Structures are given as structure tokens and as C-alpha cells.
Amino acid sequence: MRPINSVIQEVRSETPQIRTFRLEGDLDPAPGQYVMVWVRGVDEVPMSFSGPDTITVHAVGEATQALFQLGAGSSIGLRGPLGNGFVLRGDRVLLIGGGVGTAPLAFLGEQARAAGAAVDSLIGFRSSGDVIFQSRFEGLGRAVLTTDDGSAGIAGRVSAGLSEFDLKGYSQVYLCGPELMMWDIISRTREHASKIQASVNRYFKCAIGVCGSCCMDPDGIRACVEGPVIMADRLLESEFGRYRRGAAGSRGSCRG
Amino acid sequence: MRPINSVIQEVRSETPQIRTFRLEGDLDPAPGQYVMVWVRGVDEVPMSFSGPDTITVHAVGEATQALFQLGAGSSIGLRGPLGNGFVLRGDRVLLIGGGVGTAPLAFLGEQARAAGAAVDSLIGFRSSGDVIFQSRFEGLGRAVLTTDDGSAGIAGRVSAGLSEFDLKGYSQVYLCGPELMMWDIISRTREHASKIQASVNRYFKCAIGVCGSCCMDPDGIRACVEGPVIMADRLLESEFGRYRRGAAGSRGSCRG
Amino acid sequence: MLILLSLFSICSIMPSLSVHAGGLDLKNPVILAAGILGTTGASLRRAAQEGAGAVVTKSLGSAPREGHHGPTVVQVDCGLLNAMGLPNPSYREFQQEIDTAKEGGVPVIASIFGSSPEEFGRIASGLQADALELNLSCPHAEKYGAELGRYPDLVEAVTGAVKARAHVPVWVKLTPNTADIVELGLAAQRGGADAVVAINTLKAMAIDIESGYPILGNRFGGLSGPAVKPVAVRCVYELASALEIAVIGVGGVSRWEDAAEMIMAGASAVQVGTAMTKGYGVFGEINEGLSRYLERKSLNLEDIKGLSARRS
Amino acid sequence: MLILLSLFSICSIMPSLSVHAGGLDLKNPVILAAGILGTTGASLRRAAQEGAGAVVTKSLGSAPREGHHGPTVVQVDCGLLNAMGLPNPSYREFQQEIDTAKEGGVPVIASIFGSSPEEFGRIASGLQADALELNLSCPHAEKYGAELGRYPDLVEAVTGAVKARAHVPVWVKLTPNTADIVELGLAAQRGGADAVVAINTLKAMAIDIESGYPILGNRFGGLSGPAVKPVAVRCVYELASALEIAVIGVGGVSRWEDAAEMIMAGASAVQVGTAMTKGYGVFGEINEGLSRYLERKSLNLEDIKGLSARRS
Ligand SMILES: Cc1cc2nc3c(=O)[nH]c(=O)nc-3n(C[C@H](O)[C@H](O)[C@H](O)COP(=O)(O)OP(=O)(O)OC[C@H]3O[C@@H](n4cnc5c(N)ncnc54)[C@H](O)[C@@H]3O)c2cc1C
Ligand SMILES: Cc1cc2nc3c(=O)[nH]c(=O)nc-3n(C[C@H](O)[C@H](O)[C@H](O)COP(=O)(O)OP(=O)(O)OC[C@H]3O[C@@H](n4cnc5c(N)ncnc54)[C@H](O)[C@@H]3O)c2cc1C
Ligand SMILES: Cc1cc2nc3c(=O)[nH]c(=O)nc-3n(C[C@H](O)[C@H](O)[C@H](O)COP(=O)(O)O)c2cc1C
Ligand SMILES: Cc1cc2nc3c(=O)[nH]c(=O)nc-3n(C[C@H](O)[C@H](O)[C@H](O)COP(=O)(O)O)c2cc1C
Ligand code: FES
Ligand code: FES
Fold it and tell me: What ipTM was reported for this prediction?
């Protein structure tokens, strides 16, 4: 499939650095699936769906900043939806997200709620000015907020809010956010790893499982097609949280 | 479609120069359709179906003679069934055939009979030793035989038998045989041309309507895909009976 | 007749598709490719009547040729392999077909082949057509086509010899079976060509795994159809970026989107070959699609021609 | 584990698929192609465990490279266009991945690239692998690949430089973007190559008709997949007819029938690239299909190797 043309329908500012783009087209993604977004003349980068027809983007570099130059009526190229998304299991779920990683979880939570599940959330941000989707999560069920600097909610990392929840009570737990945050949560909740689904971030190039750029040690999981959502017990036995490969394939830190 | 492999199941001698080959495979042709027969290492030539799984071949040159070297168990390559076959119209039909051209008509007659139509035939051959399928036609209904030398049936060309039939009484007339024989019949029965279907013989190369080898003047009919069965009224306005093109595309006689 | 009428009405309300390409004025940029339904004047005229902007004949040589033994074509994934072997009744006998073809009302381009500049020149002076297309690119005929066309100096010499004798535009059809098609295009331009045509087929082969036999009677043939389109688009783009003369795009054009892609790559017009397996209606479909596209975008053909080079 | 066991049982009752190819002993002739899931030792090991007869790494250079901007791939009719741009962490950093890959129990072939015979030689002496494959054929990286590999004298020089330093078999991967791939194969043979690998991708391009932009970040890329198989089969046939050394067939192999066709064309083994989009199971499927075919025909691999040349 060549990239399909999609006219941006609407752009919403969530924070100065985060915007939500409503896209044209009958994309019909499952929560946790992603799309390769081609900013023409610049680059093509993976973005999770934050709703049935939206992506929510943190401007961090060339492609994302170029995307921020585009308003409603501009168009981009899309390949997707791609990958394996979250699978809804049971009727009482917990969402744990950090930063822009809360985006696919909000989408998931809304579908889970519509399907009749009880949905609680633990969401963390750097500071009160970085908080996004708070009302979406609060509309789903119990929502606990953390900020690193304490400017809103519980002060500290996301894990500082963990004690508010009894993981035993949840049929499934869903994770998305910076890798070290997810690693932190998974290490603290090892005994529940078989019911934790996490959306991982690797360097995607082809997004169709041939180039090897996104492969994870030691099993050679192709995150682009076998993921991006992977069970935490598999991640515990992997490179996850220790290193990840960049554009050149060199191993590097998994910060960010 | 690449040529499919077909193991010859059985070879039957009809005359010293004509053999019927029963082919493997679920070909499911309509009467009047043809198949491109690849005699490996030699050539690929068009052959009409003489039954649901048979072709009946007159050895006239390199490919047909090479085919005669092959017995049951040998294999050939097949592309087909191809082209537009005969269309059954009405419930009282007349078949008019000459030489190996009787082969697709016998197949058609059997299907027409099975569909409940009355089937009469007029079939002509050079000599009594060249007669094929006489019993197949006789099994269908009234069958009149001609031979050029008078050694069997009515003496003379096929047209010598025409007076035995009142064309008005038939819902449709089907023709196959040497071009000049078909031309002879069509010219003598012009007023019925709109109910005469004829299977024409042109030089087929690609058999998929791109090379132009089989095109007929003046409309550029591609005999390989729009034919080989063509209505006689269209043929009356064409090159048919006057000339046809050979392997090089040069206009030549339509004898044979 | 219905088809003709509907085409007519489209042309009058929609953006014009007329183009000037390689010395010819065309009512639309969709041309019947060489060797495709080009053996008879009747089929060429029919292509014209069904909407082709111009038609190219089968490649014509000095003497009649029957071509290679069959199979002459194999359908492969997304394309066609052919090794017809340049069958043709000779250029002399073919003039009557060209005369018939002209009744179609669009330019008739005679494709010719030879084994030397002299032979090309002789044929060129013996034919009356609206333009000549030099087949320096057929990949499966000994002594002809790409066997000359792979050498820039021969391309230049053949083009020059024909230009010296012809009173009509001369197009040179190039082979993609080369490390650098631009070198060949520049050679054609130096020889005086009015346009280059890219691409002819890619040299290829298919084997029957039941028997081990190469399927084509000639063993080797040329690959065409959707499979080769990305190669053709690249060649057109490279040529259009480097040459001053027009580039005619051919290879895998079967829908209007393909034609638009070729034109954006830099083609002044396109040719349709393998897609004719879908029937003569292809011309109408492509032209209608192009018209609607240009209307939707409020653009004309000139705007999109070579657009990609301006976008990268 | 189930997959491994079932492969095992097939191998024991079916005709042997083991081959000697280009200086390597392989348990089967189906190899993972260069640049396909070859960025990590883990994915290479997984390919081996799922049935590959050998695995080739991503092409490795002297220094880390991030490759071209995206899009780096486009799916086109019957194939894939890619312009990864040779991303790799440098051969030095990659040795650890090779060591992991070796745990798969099949030969690990390091693909390398450089811009001169010296650079190739340096990399060759700095790597421990079971064989080396010289990428003289990538069509979309400036100063590398086909930009050297189109010249027979450079192919010979690079091959010679590597042979002088390497203690393992040396395979030379050739470009089909040339008028005569046999010239390149002969040059590799003169340089001392143990095998040639044909083909790398065809230089190609795709344009987005909504915007006019070339889709690939690098504009040009390489076409692979079923679309190129007839070109690859032709190259393998031509090379096998002319060379003494082994030919490894690559290009569009995705089913066992394709592998059989390549082997009949003269390939000692085949490589699988684009078909890996179907997943790692492809190796098992192809090997199982080949075994069943050979069993049905009561033949072994050696019987069908190069069969086509004996049939025409
Ligand atoms: C499955 C998946 C889902 C994602 N979902 C979102 C999302 O919903 N919202 C969001 O803001 N971001 C998301 N990202 C991250 C996003 O892809 C990167 O932020 C983006 O690629 C940065 O590109 P850039 O050119 O702006 O930055 P650059 O300056 O090019 O790079 C900045 C950093 O972004 C990362 N990055 C760059 N290119 C890629 C790539 N092709 N694949 C993976 N990482 C890359 C690298 O870590 C790099 O160091 C997702 C990533 C993945 C893999
Ligand atoms: C639609 C169609 C159906 C046919 N059905 C039958 C049939 O049922 N039984 C039968 O015996 N014959 C049939 N023929 C004729 C048969 O195709 C030729 O007799 C055969 O091709 C001769 O090939 P050859 O190599 O033996 O002879 P050659 O020596 O090559 O040629 C002898 C003559 O056969 C004709 N011929 C050769 N090749 C072709 C070709 N590719 N296409 C058309 N004509 C060709 C030419 O008139 C030629 O002069 C049919 C032809 C067509 C077009
Ligand atoms: C059956 C067939 C016959 C052809 N004959 C000729 C020919 O005589 N002269 C020529 O220059 N090109 C010939 N070609 C090449 C086409 O004109 C065209 O360049 C090629 O097929 C690519 O275009 P396509 O993909 O639209 O078919 C032939 C192609 C086919 C398929
Ligand atoms: C995504 C991708 C990356 C590739 N990277 C390389 C490479 O690094 N080195 C190389 O020699 N060939 C590379 N190739 C070419 C393949 O190894 C192979 O030659 C080509 O794709 C044809 O085989 P296929 O049709 O099976 O894919 C790459 C191909 C693809 C599709
Ligand atoms: S991004 Fe290429 S294999 Fe996953
Ligand atoms: S045989 Fe080629 S068009 Fe009919």
C-alpha cells in the first residue's frame, strides 16, 4: 500500500508542545495501532492513534516540528493502521500512561468503557502545564494524576501513584509512555506481568517487518508488526528497559 | 497465467492424420473455446476443444507432428480455455463442419442435445478415409455426410449437402472448418447470416489480445479474445474469405 | 458510437488534454505503444477511434519476419513476458496498413528497426508516417534493438542517419537494460531526436518448473506491465531532468493514476502496452480519469508535467 | 519448538536439501537476503532457527550511518521499493550481533560495503563471519554499491582486495542495472570470488500523485519482490551459463516454486528478501515445498540445478 493522502481536518493544541490532528479517511484503527505519518519533503514517523481518527503529537524533532507547521486543510501521507494493538481482556482494566503515551490509552479506555468495562487510570506528566487528556480519563472512571514537580496531583514519577491501586483487582493493565517509566512500573509489578500489555517504542523504518530496524533482543521480535503492544512478561526477558537501537542500529539508551 | 502442466491421459487415432488427445485437468471449456497447446521445445499452437477434456488434432506441420510423438503419460503445457465460444440459441440447431473443424461442433452438439435442443448436422471430408466423429453426429440427430471424392455420403463440397436442410427451420447455425468452405456456406446463405456463428482461424500468437497478430479487417476484431466464434453477418463485412495474415503479418490466401 | 459521443462530451466540458509532444500535436497524451495491436491498419484505426491520442505501429524492418516460435508470451505476476521476435511483413508491405490507420484521425507513428544506421535510414525514407519511432531497445532479437541501443555512439549514429532522411519528427525508444539510461538519451538528443521514449521491456525469463524448459520459445523475453512501472517512472524522471527534448513515458501504464505519475515524473505523453489486455476501452478510461483529476485539482497538464522534480 | 520439530521430521524422511554452495555447506538452499531483518543478531538467529540455510547480515560499512530519511519503503504492485540508505552501526560494533547470530547454527554471511577496494579490504579483515558478501549493487547510496559495481574493473579490484585479506569464502552481489551482468560476473570470478549473488534491486521510483512528491525520502530506490523475479531468473541463467563459480539466486523468491525456478535457472542456492513480510515461516514453507516436489519427481537438488540450460 502506497501512502494514502489525508487532509488534516482540525488541529487542537493540547499543550504548547503537544497537538492533536484530526485526519480524513476511514482509518478504523484499533487502540494501540499506529500509522506511519509522512510529512512530505521531510520524513515519515510512527504515531499511535489517540482516537478513531486522531493522532496526538509531541514536537520533539524535525518531522514532528514540520507537522506542527501544518494546519487544517494541509495534507499528509498515511500508511496504516499498522501493527498489533491492545487486546481488551476482562471487565475491569487499569491504564497507566506517561506524557504523550497517554494518547493511545485514552482511546483504549473509551472503547473499553463503551464495551462495558470499568476503567481506572494512572497518568503522569512532568508538570501541570504538560497535562493532557485529564478530563478524558476522569470521564472513564477513577483517575489518579502525578507530576514530577508536584504542580498537580501526586508529586513524583508515575510509580508514585501505584500505591493508589491494587493491581490484583484488575483483569488487565495497559501501559504506554517513556520506556524507563514503563520499565519502572513493570519491575515493580513483576508478579502481574502476564496481564500487563505495554506499547513499546522502537526505531521504525519499514513498518512492514522486513528491514529489521525495530527488532528486539533476544527473540528478534519485530516491534513494528508483532508489536507495538507486547506482553510485559515477554518484555521482562528482553532488552526492554536496558537499551534500544537507534537509526543506525547502534545500541543506545532507552531514555525518552 | 503461466502454462499449466497437463499429462496426456489417452491418445485416440481418428484417421492416420488426426488424433484425439484426452488431457488432464479441470479445464471446463465451453464449446468453441480453445487452448494454447505448448509442445515443449517446439511451439505453442491454438486448438479447439473437441470435448470437455479433449482436443482433436490434424497433423499439418512442426508442432502438430511433434504432438503426435507424444503418447499417454507425456505432458504438455496449456493456456486456456480462451476466447468466446459458441452461444446456444433456441432449441433447433444445425451444425455445419468440414474436416477437423467438425471437432468443436461435435462437442457443441452434445451440449446442445443435453440442454434439450434438436441437433442436425452437415459434415464434409475429403474422402471416406478422412471421416471423423460420424457416429457422434449421428447420435445427435439427422446427420448428412459429404466427401469431395464421393467415397462416402454425398459427393462434393460441404455445400453440396446444403439443399438437404431448410435453414429457415433452425434457430441457429454453427460453422467450423476451412475458411473457404465456411465462406462458401455463408455466401450461399446470406439471408440467414444473423443466426450463423462461425469459428474462425487466424494466426494466434499471444492469445490475450495484445500482439495484434490475429486482428481482422476492417474493424480490428481480435479473433483470439473477441472470437474465435464470430457472427456471420460481421464476417460478411470483413476480410473473411478474401485474405488472412500469416506469421509475419503479411496478407495471404485463406486456403486451408 | 456511444463511446465516441461520451468521450466527446467529456472533452468539451473538462480541462483540455491536448499536448504538444516531440513535434506532434496530440488531442490527448495517451498513445498506443509499439507492437501492441499494431500489426494491422484496422486495429490501429480502432485504437484511434476509441480514444488514443496517437498510435505506434508494430516495429517494421527491411524484410518480412515471422518472429520467434511460441510461446511468445507468458503472463507472470503483475506483468507480461514477451518474445515476439519482431514479426512484421516488412516496411514496404506495411505502408497500406499505415494508410488505413491514418483514417483514425490521429498521428500514426511508424516504429522501425534495423541493424545499422544505413538500414534505419533506408527504411525511414521509404515510409510515409506522421513520425518515426526508432526501436533501439527490443531486448530479445539478435542483431537488433538493444544490441545496438546499449551503445551511446550507435544511438547517436542511428538517430542522425534517420534525421538526415526523415521529414517528420523522430522519436528514439530507449532500453532500460543499461547502467545509465541518461547517457543513451543524451546520445539520441545529440543525434537530433525530437523525443525519447522510455522504456522498452526489461530483459527477463520464466521457467516451467514441471519440465525445466524456459517457457518462451526464444528463452529470453521482455518484461512489461505493472511490474516495470517503478523502473519506467525512474527512467522518465532521470531523462526529463537531463534532456531538453520531450520524454514519452511507457511501462506499466494501465490506469489514469499511472499516467499522472509518469507525467509528474516528466513525461510529455504516455504510451499504453500491456494494459491493452483489458481492451480498447483503456484509452477512454485513462483520459477520463486524467480530466477529472485535473478538474478536481484545478490544474492543467502543463502544471503537473515534471512536478516531481520541482518537489524534491 | 513445534515448528522446529516438524521441520526436523520432514528433513529426515524427505530428499536431502543440503547443498554445497560457494564454499559453504548448507543444510538447505534457502538463505536470508542481505538487509532483511539483518540489523540484529537476534533476528538473524531467529531466521536460522526457523529454517534458513544461512543468513546474511545488513550491509556493514566503516562508520555508523543512519540511512535516508523516510519514507524508506513503498509497497507497489507486486513488489517493494526501498531506499534504506545502508543504515548500520559500523562493522566494528556489529561483530557482537554476528556472534549472537552464529548461535542459530547456520553460516552467518557478513554483507559489507565500501567506496574503494582498500575500504572493502579493511572491513573484510576486521570481521569474523563464515563468509563475506560484497555489496557492489545497492542502487540508491551515493559512492557505494552499484556506483562501483557497474564497472567490471572495479568489481575485479574490490573482489581481489577482499580475497587477499579474507580467510572465508567471498561472494559478490551483482547489480541488474547494467547492459550485461555476465561481464560483471566474469570480473568477480577473475577477482577470485567463490560465488556471485544475483540480483540486487532494480533502480526505481514512485511518485505520490496527490502532491507530486517522490515518495521515498531519497527519491530513488530499489525494486524487489515478485515484480523482479523474471529479471532475476534471467540474470541467474545468464550467469550460470557463463561462469564456473556458483550463482546464488535472489529476487522475488517467495514460494517454493520460485526457488525451484531459480535453481533450474542455475542457482546453487537462493536468498529470500521481500517475502519476509509474510513472516519467518517462509523458510519452512519453501523447504517443505521443495522437498515434496523433489520427492514427487524422484529427483534431488543436483538434478534440477541448471536444468533449463540443458532443455533449450
Ligand atoms: C509505535 C510508536 C508510536 C508512537 N506514537 C507516538 C505518539 O502517539 N505521539 C508522539 O508524539 N510520538 C509517538 N511516537 C514517537 C515518534 O515516532 C517520534 O517522536 C518521532 O518519530 C520523532 O521524529 P522527529 O523527526 O520529530 O524527531 P527526530 O529528531 O528525528 O528524533 C527524535 C527522537 O524520536 C525518535 N524517533 C525518530 N524517528 C523515529 C522513528 N522512525 N521511529 C521511532 N522513533 C523515532 C528517536 O528516539 C529520536 O531520537 C511513537 C513511536 C512509535 C514507535
Ligand atoms: C481458434 C483455433 C482453433 C483451432 N483448432 C484446431 C483444432 O481443433 N484442430 C486442429 O488440428 N487445428 C486447429 N487449429 C489450427 C492449428 O492451430 C494449426 O493447424 C497449427 O497451429 C499448425 O501448427 P504446426 O506447427 O503443426 O504447423 P505449421 O507448419 O507451423 O503451420 C501450418 C499452418 O498452420 C497454421 N498455423 C500455424 N501456427 C498457427 C498459429 N499459432 N495460429 C493459427 N494458425 C497457425 C498456419 O496456417 C500455417 O500455415 C485451430 C486454429 C485456431 C486459430
Ligand atoms: C506483446 C508485445 C510486443 C511488443 N512489441 C514491440 C515492438 O515491436 N517494438 C517496440 O519498440 N516495443 C515493443 N513492445 C514494448 C512495448 O511497446 C512497451 O515498451 C513495453 O511493453 C512497456 O510498456 P507496457 O508496460 O505498457 O506494456 C512490445 C511489448 C509487448 C508486450
Ligand atoms: C528493505 C530492504 C533492504 C535491503 N538492504 C540490502 C542491503 O543492505 N544490502 C544488500 O546487498 N541488499 C539489500 N537489499 C536487497 C535484497 O537483499 C535483495 O537483493 C533484493 O531485495 C531482491 O530480493 P527479494 O525480491 O527477495 O527482496 C535490501 C532489500 C530490501 C527490500
Ligand atoms: S521497522 Fe522494519 S522490520 Fe520493523
Ligand atoms: S493473438 Fe495476439 S492479439 Fe490475438
Answer: 0.96
